[in-house]
Structure formats: C-alpha cells, structure tokens
Amino acid sequence: MRFGLVLLCALMSGPAIAAPCGGDFGDFVQAMKAEALAQGQTQTDIDAFFEGASVDAKVLKADRSQGVFRKTFVDFSKALISKSRLNKGMALAREWDNVFDRAATDYGVPRGILLAFWAFETDFGAVQGEFNTRNALVTLAQDCRRPELFQPQVFAAIALTGQGIFDPARSTGAWAGEIGMVQMLPKDILEQGVDGDGDGAISLKTSAPDALLSAAKKLQSLGWQAGAPWLQEIVVPNGLDWSMTGLETQLSVAEWAAMGVKARGADLPDGALMASILLPQGRKGPTFMAYPNFKVLFEWNKSFVYVTTASYFATRLEGAGVYDAGAPDASLSSDQMMALQEKLAALGYDVGKIDGILGAATRAAVQKEQARLGLPADAWPTEALLDGL
After folding, report:
1. Residue 371, in any domain of the structure
2. pLDDT tens-digit profile of 161-209?
3. φ/ψ bin of 282: left (φ > 0), alpha (ψ from -120 to 50), beta (otherwise)
C-alpha cells in the first residue's frame, strides 16, 4: 500500500519557486528548463527529461484524496499489520540479514524500522506504483499547492537522468513522485542513494540492498540516533496529569518513572533519555513512550497515525508484544472533526488544512482547549469537547 505525499521525506524548506505555478503548462516547462540550465544542468539532459512531459490529472486527484489518514490508530494499525505481513517481514529479515547488519553498523538504523517502512510503502516491494514519475513530478511542481516542494524534485530528477539512473519516459512509481521499494523522492536518491549490492548502479526499484541501505542513510541524515529506542508500550498511573502527555512535553525517563510510569512487559531504557508520553486515542486507549528517534520519522512521513503505526510495527518486528487497545472513547466522525477544526481555527489555533484528519497540530490545540474547559487533557477529541466549544 502506498501513502503518497504524506511521505514528504526530508524535503527541505524549499527556496522560492523557480517557475510560476498554475497557468499555461508550456510556459511552465520553458521556465523550468531555463532554471535547470541556470543551475548547470546540460541542455541534452533537460530536453531528454521534458520530452513528452504532460500533466497527469490522476495525480492531482490522488493529491486531494488522502482519507485513509482519518482512521484511528487502532483501526489503522489493524488494517496494516497482519500475521502474514509480520511473518513476511521476519522472513525477509533472515533473507537479507547481512544487509540489515550493514544498515545497523554503517547508519545506526535497526532492521525493524526499515522493515516497517518497506512493508507499508510498497508491501515489501510488490506494489511500487504505476504512475509515470516524470509526469507526476511536473504535475505537482506546476500545481500551486506545493510547488516549492516539488520543483526541486524535478531538478533532481533531471540530474538522475543525466546519470542514467532515471528514464523519464519509463520510470514509474507513486503518484507523488516517490520511487522504489521504500519510496524515495529524486532529491533523496541523488543525495542519499547507496549502491548496496555493488553492481555499480543505484536501483531502488529492483535491488533490496540498494533500497534498504539508501533508506538507512537517509534516516541517519535526518538525525536518527544509533542504538536508541523509538517507541515503547507503557502503563501509566490513573492519576497522571494528562496535560503533560503529548509530543510537546518531554521529560527524562527517570522523571516519568518517578511518577509511576512503567514499561509493559519490559524495562524502561536509560533514565537520562528524554521521552514523551503518547496517547494515540486518549487516556483510555493504547499508551506509549516516544523517544527522540520517533520524532525523526516525521521527517520521512508527516502523518501522525502513519508514523505511530510504522513505529509500533517496527517494535513488533523486533520482538515486542501486541499493544493493549484498552477501551478508548468513540472517535468523532469526519464531519465532526472538520467542525472541530473550524472551531479551533476560529479560536486562533493553526490546525492546518480543515480536512477531518487528527494530525499533530489539531491534537495540540485539542489538548489546550480540554485543559481550558476542565476536561481530561489527553488530546483525544470527543463530543464533549465539541459541545463545549
């Protein structure tokens, strides 16, 4: 299963766009060609890349439709994590044992994390996407929603074309321009691509070593800390101050332990390590300790529910047990969530797009309003909160 652009990878805060968004596509292409030439790309590579380029309406439709992220963590994780997928991951861990050892040694990234993204991005390489990557990139680069993110990807793809890594007419991938088994964007391949199998070429579509080691190098570049945990299921005392939960609050593991927080079925790590308490569905649902490495994953994918599920699946692949789902309060409907976001925006909170998706910004606003209204401030929106607003 592919989740498209929520995977904005380490797309840096981009510079001003090189070509005007919207308008005539031909004019846009000419402006992009001029900018590519000014950046030092060869005219041959530029012409080869843009020959036959066109807008893909299906890409725009996919970009506007990401309703899967409206699912709760429990529903989302149950949909993505099956016994067969877990068994497949463990089998691949054995098959590519030496590659995963290299990833851990060279880049400090554990196999569970790489397996989780490999599984969720492309079902271990089985579903890599059939969109023409060049057309997907130019479509999103011209579209006015995020041109500053995609225009640099076009220039990177031109460079890959010149290196013989990218075929503009034939290269395919996800609707948002990601390529290969772990779905990386051209700029990431250009900067972080690894020839893992030693054949002299980088192919994230056909080579598992190339894909896995490139992903590991990318995560290292984003700040992944070698040998450190990322997520762990915990048990918290009933009297915990719920307003202290959430990714915005960090305390040392020792400080959390002093409040009665314990690991479920294991031990907590070094007491000096900083951590946050994560309640994906509020105080009555699953409960986790999130460590600094967890936040690094948001540089790979911006979706809260996706990152939390991938992180949890990685712990399962590393031997952790099934989480305690608890009995969380009912979730709001999509319409109710949008109404809540509108109310929060009217109060001055930046919740991003009014899309019915409970992302990190909406969670933070929810928690603040729960505290103001005297409700348990666990960042899980309920009808009581909606009514109170």
Report:
1. yes
2. 999 999 999 999 999 999 999 999 999 999 999 999 999 999 999 999 9
3. left
Taking the C-alpha atoms of residue 107 and residue 101, their distance in angstroms, rounded to an integer, is: 10
Q: How many domains does the chain have?
A: 2
CATH number (domain holding residue 299): 1.10.530.10
* Residue 328 maps to a domain: no
Asked whether 29 and 151 are in contact (CB, 8 A), the reply is: no
Question: Cα angle at 250 between 280 and 265, to 5 degrees?
Answer: 55
Residues 238 and 312 in one domain: yes
Neighbours of 144 (CB within 10 A): 10
DSSP SS3 for 290: strand
Task: Find how far residue 67's CA is from the centre of its chain.
Answer: 15
**pTM score, two decimals?**
0.91
Domain finish residue from 285, 317, 349: 317
pLDDT tens column, 271-328: 999 999 999 999 999 999 999 999 999 998 888 999 999 999 999 999 999 999 999 9
User: What is the span of the domain harbouring residue 338?
Assistant: 334-388
Of the CA atoms within 13 Å of residue 279, those in its CB half-sphere come to 30
DSSP code for 288:
E
Same domain, 260 and 311: yes
Task: Find out whether 11 and 147 touch, Cβ atoms under 8 Å.
Answer: no
